[in-house]
Design a protein that fits this description.
This is GNAT family N-acetyltransferase. InterPro entries: Acyl_CoA_acyltransferase (IPR016181), GNAT_dom (IPR000182), N-acetyltransferase (IPR051531). Pfam families: Acetyltransf_3. It comes from Sphingopyxis jiangsuensis. This protein has one domain (6-184): Aminopeptidase (3-Layer(aba) Sandwich), CATH 3.40.630.30. It contains 6 helices and 8 strands. The protein has helices spanning 21-28, 31-34, 45-56, 103-119, 133-141, 170-184, and strands spanning 6-7, 12-15, 62-68, 76-84, 87-94, 123-128, 145-156, 159-169. The chain has an 8-stranded mixed beta sheet with strand order 1-2-3-4-5-6-8-7. The termini are far apart.
Length: 185
């Protein structure tokens, strides 16, 4: 599946491609960025190229957008993996020097809107480490609710970790979008 190009006021979200590996290697080799990821920081560009290969596979059943500021340089990505009819999992990563600028929120909001309005999902969820305060805050700002606490769910580079599942329903997103419009209207 090829991700359609999506835009926001600041961003162009386009299909992640193999050549993005060089731009994303600094992110995927950054121990701070990768701390809460299911795998540790990448040791070399070849590891990043292999990892990007999975995310760029058009027949893997997911859509993966490179996050760019319109200059075609990948700063991270957003991925939607359809898990069953009407339900998708959301994943994301962003270069550390771009944290705190609203880029991830803007990119995720556009992909969520696409998932609900254009694909027709009824539910989108995300899986995050209970200690990943930044990711939890982002999901909650976007209207997600914590639905589950899965104990000892993941074996990662930092040990066996619990997982929080955050979910968002199409109707909740629509209501959340209407609230945001009223605040900014």
């Amino acid at each position: 599946m090829t991700a359609p190009t999506l835009t926001t006021d600041r961003l162009v979200l386009r299909q992640l491609v193999a050549r993005d590996a060089s731009a994303l290697h600094a992110t995927l080799s950054d121990p701070q960025v990768m701390h809460w990821w299911s795998s540790g920081a990448h040791g070399d560009l070849a590891e990043t190229e292999a990892y990007i290969g999975f995310n760029t596979a058009r027949d893997a059943g997911h859509l993966c957008w490179a996050i760019t500021l319109g200059d075609d340089v990948a700063l991270g990505w957003v991925i939607l993996r359809e898990r069953r009819a009407g339900v998708a999992e959301l994943g994301y990563i962003l270069r550390r020097d771009k944290w705190g600028q609203g880029i991830a929120r803007e990119a995720l909001a556009r992909v969520i809107e696409h998932g609900f309005s254009e694909i027709g999902y009824r539910r989108i969820y995300a899986d995050t480490d209970p200690d990943n305060a930044g990711s939890i805050a982002l999901l909650e700002r976007l209207g997600f609710s914590r639905e589950a606490h899965l104990r000892e769910e993941w074996e990662t580079h930092i040990g066996v970790r619990d997982s929080f599942i955050y979910g968002l329903l199409r109707g909740e997103w629509t209501a959340h979008a209407a609230e945001r419009a009223m605040e900014h209207g």
